[in-house]
Amino acid sequence: MRRSSRNASEYRSTAGQPTSDSHLWRTLSSLAPYLWQYKWRVLLALSCLLCAKVANVSVPLVFKNMIDGLTGTQQVLALPALLLALYGGLRFSTSLFTELREILFARVTQQAVRRIALEVFRHLHALSLRFHLERQTGGVSRDIERGSRSISSLISYTLYSILPTLVEMSLVLGILFFKYDFGFVLITLLSLTAYIVFTIKVSNWRIDLRRRVNDTDSAANTRAVDSLLNYETVKYFNNEEYEARRYDSQMRQWEDAATRSQISLSWLNLGQQIIIALGVTAMMWRAAAGVVDGKMTIGDLVLVNAFLIQLYMPLTFLGVIYREIRQSLTDIERMFDLLAVNREIADAANAIVLDAKSVKVRFASVDFSYEPKRQILFGVDFEIPAGHTVAVVGESGSGKSTLARLLYRFYDIDGGRICINDCDLRQLTQASLRTAIAIVPQDTVLFNDSIYYNIQYGRPEASREEVLAAARAAQLSEFIELLPEGYETRVGERGLKLSGGEKQRVAIARALLKNPPLLIFDEATSALDSRTEKAIQASLDYAARGRTTLVIAHRLSTIMNADQILVMDGGRIVERGSHQALLEANGGYAQMWALQQQEEAVEVEVERESAAAHAL
């Protein structure tokens, strides 16, 4: 299915705008293929709908004949048994065909919701890192939630309310036209037209109010989610009341919008009831006049009254239904807008699958910038031969972690080439490229699940024995065995129940379990104390053995054995060589080394004094 593409900024700027009629038709045309996949179920459901309405309209006709058949003192005895049986049968048939329609259509609706939600979910994961860094998670999740729910609402309102009402309206108008004079049809048409026009005009005016309610609701939800995700930061700065005031400020806007929307709804309902009252009064006056003149029977009066009730009862909810349909279409459109967001990073048409047990990495004069006015890398050029380890050091902001993001192809470079086994990254499928890489990131974020799940996430099909082996290799097993629930211990939202060092050890175990030909350690031991770092370093060295490894490091003591060390400054490689060669060059690396040696000596002295005090 073809959709227009847009970028992330266009999604944000148009998500709250009024929905035009062309957009509504586009949304309906986008939704139709998901439903038409089950066309036989749809056609059978529509047939049941028609049968149910024919039976429903036939009930007043039978009831009229029953009333007209009552004569004198023998009323009960004179009731035709056949009409009674027919009356009951038609009543049951209405319910039978209605329920059959719902049974037939239930799976169509739920399948459509599931398939669309899954497609949006997959598409969001396929979008670039840039989109996810710029997005508001709470607002996007609310758009998906409302869009999925609105599909069910739209189908329910159209199939179970609007379409049945239109069918019944056509049948009733036909009976009134052929059985009575045109006056009844004219009054009914005028009433229905006035009601529908009034409802649509006022409801369209109210859509902006409803949209304001939804926008303020999404904004409040986004603010709440953002605050709760940063729970620790809020606590660090004692800003609970500040966050509460910010949330309340957003909720006040929602309160004002919701109040205006509710008041306008009351005025709409009042106007609708005035039109219905006038139409019913005119119809009953004409029917009563016909009875007095002898042109109509009491049964005809009952029939007209029954038809009016059948017509106006669903019309009472037409305003609500129309508004909900419009709102559902708007919510669905916003979800489809997510699908229309352009994938910044896409596989080439002739992309090939990387299938290698060992890899060679080459950065050839790479230029890169996250934003056009702020270049990050300038002519970066280096190679990691297969099975070798290259370490990158430098001050914060020098572009070290950007190298890892580019290797994963989260972004495309501005100039130069990045090659894996002499093949440009852009000619490889992203799935096969990322299968060949494992990373231990600087900031480890875990799923709100068990420790076992978070380790196994590195390779979901791995056996329990392999998971436990990875935990042991990351020096994690002893800690886990001390926990009451062991490997089934839940780590909390983003892993907040674990310390920084424990989270990084889980990330190391996850990377080891993946067992790829290319490893990236992005300051993997930065959150660990010296003792734990030394214990894990042996495991990291073992894991890197025989693999191509890129180590982005802060502590220089962890990279002494690297085959080559690159020193970056301002997005450029300013020094390169082995640890010993760089020390002998007495440049920036030698200065960093000397400074860190002093810091480590102080740390050792502090630990010694602490141990001595504890012994006393």
UniProtKB/TrEMBL annotation:
ABC transmembrane type-1 domain location: 43-327
PROSITE patterns: ABC_TM1F (PS50929), ABC_TRANSPORTER_1 (PS00211), ABC_TRANSPORTER_2 (PS50893)
Intracellular or extracellular location(s): Cell membrane
Signal peptide limits: none
Principal subcellular localization: membrane
Membrane topology note: Multi-pass membrane protein
Residue span(s) of domain ABC transporter: 361-595
Residue ranges, annotated region (Disordered): 1-21
Source taxon at top rank: Bacteria
Protein name: ABC transporter ATP-binding protein/permease
Organism listed in the record: Candidatus Propionivibrio dominans
